[in-house]
Design goal:
The chain contains 15 helices and nine strands. It has 386 residues and is an alpha/beta fold.
Length: 386
């Protein structure tokens, strides 16, 4: 088996059906399978899977209760036979050549993580639970809206691929930031130090052996999101290359958010910062908590890579890590001011730190790191370093 398409699902029967229809239309000469991990759905997903007429080996794993998307994906991966894992969520519609292009991208490349186009969106069903912004956009597109879970997309559009004519770009600060990064560093992400930010598991692929070597997805991440970033970070740290492929197209069927509350995001950010609590993972802390824009963050990481080559500068990096933890606490914990600070101006010998930072800047040219270090010290500890 050349590839295994990994699809986690939870109470998304109607969107999953459409997703499987799009996979039925794949123009791929290589053998592939689709593995659906049903995370305790209660909407008839299992009966739909049992009756679905697939043009490929369709395997589904029934999980009695929802134990998180990481657990679901792992159950699917453990049943996979393909050399390549293609991650494709239950709400995604695949262009006809998605599987073939993912497979081809890995030819003669054992070190590659492929990130397909992930910011295209369309409306396939109407939901009464849609957030306000969705209802406003739908009101602009349609004169009359159907009832809850009634279709807005014909099956024929999925079969012939014309659903692509109805899609639009997701327009958020996050997507605009990623597009800006691509504009500067290109789709090969050459020179970009945080490529894992493009590893979104609704349209990405990697050799199965790499995922197995890293211990699969982290099942400790139970709340919504971040399990893909976590695996992407570990793939990056293992030395793999990342590539954005705009021509590998998949479109997200819009639906009410799976994120229960902002507490999900806060909890997962705190979890990630505790998990990657070392100076070799400062990119994680800068991405999630750093008060710097994407371009400056990348420049800071380039400087940090230089500093990591010298043991004598590790103390600076440890202080920088603690400062970023303080930023995290300020961002996530409303009571952070009432708690004992992680670091104060008395936590280190100020003249020694100032001398070491000056030496590093002069010898290695780490100007961006030095400025960021001084800015955090001034903002959080109210100390001006010359």
């Amino acid at each position: 088996m050349k590839a295994s398409v990994i699809v986690p699902a939870y109470n998304s029967k109607e969107r999953l059906y459409n997703s499987l229809l799009s996979l039925n239309e794949q123009e791929c000469t290589e053998p592939f399978e689709v593995i659906v991990a049903d995370n305790g759905s209660e909407d008839g997903t299992l009966s739909m899977l049992e009756s679905f007429s697939a043009n490929f080996p369709l395997i589904f794993v029934r999980i009695k209760e929802n134990r998180g998307i990481a657990y679901g994906r792992n159950q699917a991966v453990r049943n996979a036979r393909g050399d390549i894992l293609i991650f494709h969520d239950s709400d995604m519609l695949a262009e006809k050549d998605l599987v073939a292009k993912h497979i081809k991208a890995h030819e003669n490349r054992d070190d590659l993580v492929v990130c397909g186009m992930f910011w295209k969106r369309l409306y396939s069903f109407y939901y009464d639970r849609f957030e306000k912004e969705h209802k406003e956009k739908l009101a602009e597109l349609y004169e009359d809206l159907p009832g809850d879970k009634e279709p807005l997309l014909d099956e024929s559009a999925i079969r012939d691929g014309s659903f692509l004519d109805q899609c639009f770009d997701l327009d958020t600060d996050f997507i605009r930031a990623l597009k800006s990064i691509l504009g500067k560093y290109g789709d090969d992400l050459k020179g970009y130090r945080l490529p894992w930010r493009f590893f979104i598991t609704n349209n990405s692929s990697v050799k199965r052996q790499h995922v197995e070597d890293l211990g699969l997805f982290d099942e400790g991440i139970v709340r919504y999101g971040f399990e893909d970033y976590d695996l992407g970070i570990r793939l990056h740290q293992s030395g793999l290359a990342f590539q954005l492929r705009r021509d590998i197209m998949s479109v997200h069927q819009e639906h009410p958010s799976n994120c229960a509350s902002v507490d999900d995001i806060r909890t997962n950010i705190a979890y990630m910062c505790d998990k990657y609590n070392d100076i070799h993972s400062l990119d994680v802390h800068l991405a999630f908590n750093g008060p710097f824009d994407a371009e400056l963050t990348n420049s800071i990481m380039a400087d940090i890579e230089k500093l990591l080559d010298y043991e004598k500068y590790e103390s600076l990096l440890h202080i920088f890590l603690e400062l970023l933890h303080v930023v995290k606490d300020r961002n996530l914990d409303p009571d952070w001011k009432t708690k004992s600070p992680r670091i104060t101006a008395n936590s280190f010998h100020l003249p020694e730190v100032q001398k070491l930072l000056s030496k590093a800047e002069k010898k290695l040219g780490v100007t961006h790191f030095a400025r960021a270090f001084k800015a955090l010290i001034a903002d959080l500890l109210h100390v001006d370093l010359k």
